[in-house]
Amino acid sequence: MAYYNMVKRPRADGTVRYRLTAGVKEGDKHLHRETRTFGKLAQARTWGAKRVAELEENGVPNSNDISILSCMRVVEVYKIRWEDVDEKQKAVLVRDIKAPRKKSGNHILVPLLAEARAMCSASPKPANG
């Protein structure tokens, strides 16, 4: 069952931030959790309700599957943006891959298997593109 929880957090400068945790819990076990922080209460509630609806509709996102299918680290999968997905070449541009000598600018085009492409196309796209 999907849920969201909000914690009001005062900052040192006196302003208040709202930390929202959205997730899916089955019994006593957490299947998925994600956290975001907002400056306004209305934004936090809107995101929480929207994220719970997405989790109820689409189920728990599983980045491990696409990570295994594409031979990428989970953190590299999380950094992928929609403009990095190249449908024509059936590949995805991975930015700043881990390299021993160079920390940034390590971009590589990774080919995607059919299963990984299906997972990408099944993922919801943001409203702004």
Automatic annotation (TrEMBL):
Name of the molecule in the record: Integrase
Source species, domain of life: Bacteria
One GO molecular-function entry: DNA binding
InterPro entries according to UniProt: DNA_brk_join_enz
SUPFAM superfamilies listed in its UniProt record: DNA breaking-rejoining enzymes
